[in-house]
Design a protein that fits this description.
- This protein is of the alpha+beta class.
- The protein has one domain: Ubiquitin-like (UB roll), CATH 3.10.20.30.
- The chain has three helices and five strands; from the N terminus they run ββαβααββ.
- The N and C termini lie far apart (32 Å).
């Protein structure tokens, strides 16, 4: 199992077990991380799974695709470390990754 650490917009940490091959969005939905909505089900077509990657992890994940960057244009309070959680697949190299959820998705 891979551990994913979610920090809510209120600063509450929840560490959960993730399954390799699922996305961070799937992991969040399966573990009741309610600030990640994922309305499109992971199709990179809504932006409601916006997260912030903690700085030490930004360079350890693949860069966003052009499509993901386009969808982030619709998200609220986008930062340098913003990503769509539906686009990040979990593998053993992400064990211990920490992400933060924004206050609002839209």
């Amino acid at each position: 199992m891979v551990i994913v650490n979610f920090i809510s917009s209120k600063g509450v940490l929840k560490s959960v077990n993730a399954t390799e091959g699922e996305t961070i969005m799937d992991c969040a939905k399966n573990n009741d991380i309610y600030e990640i909505e994922g309305e499109c089900g992971g199709g990179c077509s809504c932006g409601t799974c916006h997260i912030y990657i903690n700085d030490e992890w930004v360079d350890k994940i693949e860069a966003p695709t052009e499509m993901e960057e386009d969808m982030l244009d619709f998200a609220i309070d986008v930062k340098e470390n913003s990503r769509l959680s539906c686009q990040i697949k979990i593998d053993e190299t992400l064990d211990g990754i920490t992400v933060q959820t924004p206050e609002k998705q839209f």
